[in-house]
Design goal:
By secondary structure, this protein is mainly alpha-helical. 51% of the residues lie in helices and 0% in strands. The chain has one domain. It is elongated and about 45 Å long. The chain starts with 29 loop residues before the first helix and ends with a helix.
């Protein structure tokens, strides 16, 4: 298992120590680990494409990664690549008029 990809059991929430079986609920997690690793690999490839300037390929790879396992940082990156809009078309940045009211 790659440390940090899947630190907790998705069933009971117990901390995993690198084992393919949860120590608390005895769930077999080999397939879950494999899927998490595939998602991490796709996200990494997407970030490499983004760094290379190929945003279309980056978005495709990051969307594929998010179908396997969505993390807050992956959702944020996809939102930023979509022009700062969340899937429900709301801006992720505060309205400029709200910023003026804070001053």
């Amino acid at each position: 298992m790659i440390t940090g990809i899947l630190d907790q059991c998705p069933i009971c929430g117990a901390r995993l120590g690198g084992s393919d079986t949860c120590r608390r609920c005895r769930a077999e997690l080999e397939t879950v680990h494999s899927i998490a690793q595939q998602g991490a690999a796709l996200a990494g490839a997407g970030l490499q494409r983004l760094a290379a300037g190929d945003s279309a390929a980056a978005i495709r790879l990051l969307r594929r990664a998010s179908t396997l396992r969505t993390t807050p940082d992956l959702a944020w990156i996809l939102s930023a690549l979509a022009g700062g809009e969340t899937p429900n078309r709301r801006r992720t940045e505060p309205d400029p008029t709200e910023k003026a009211a804070w001053r």
